[in-house]
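Open question from group meeting: does this chain pack into something compact, or does most of it stay loose? Before anyone orders reagents, we agreed to write out a predicted structure and look at it together. Recording both the input and the output here so the notebook holds the full record.
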Amino acid sequence: MTTAWEAAVEAQIRSAQERGEFDNLPGAGKPIPGRDTPYDEGWWIRSFMEREQIPSDLLLPTPLQLRRRIEQLPAELRDLPTEDAVRSYVATLNTEVVAWLRTPTGPRVVVRPVNVEEAVRGWRADRERAAPVVTTPEPPRAASARPRRRWRWWRR
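Structure tokens returned:
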């Protein structure tokens, strides 16, 4: 037995079908994505993360996020332009590590602050390896060679 509101909803759906409002909808005639895959309780969070392009690192606990950032530190520092920027970046990371060490949460993972001087040395070494090859300039012209004379239209 249907209630009054169910009958009203069915009537609205039926009238919309008759008007053709459900014709030519995007995805019409296509299979529902993920219909053949086994049920997964976290399907909605995975689809949200894919749709919004959210990195999966954000789901990690704080100590694992810090470990990953420390492991990826050389690649992050490589793009920084100055030594001061490198020192500032490492100092910010060390501040976060020390804050976590004061009140650890999550799994017990060994996380230590980064040695700033070692990070700067590694940054310098990467810059030296990636330095462009300097070519020697052309030798100057012989003194006997006359400079080309420029004619201007008003001096003809």
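Observations to bring back to the group:
Residues 83-102 form the longest helix (20 residues).
The chain has a mean pLDDT of 84.
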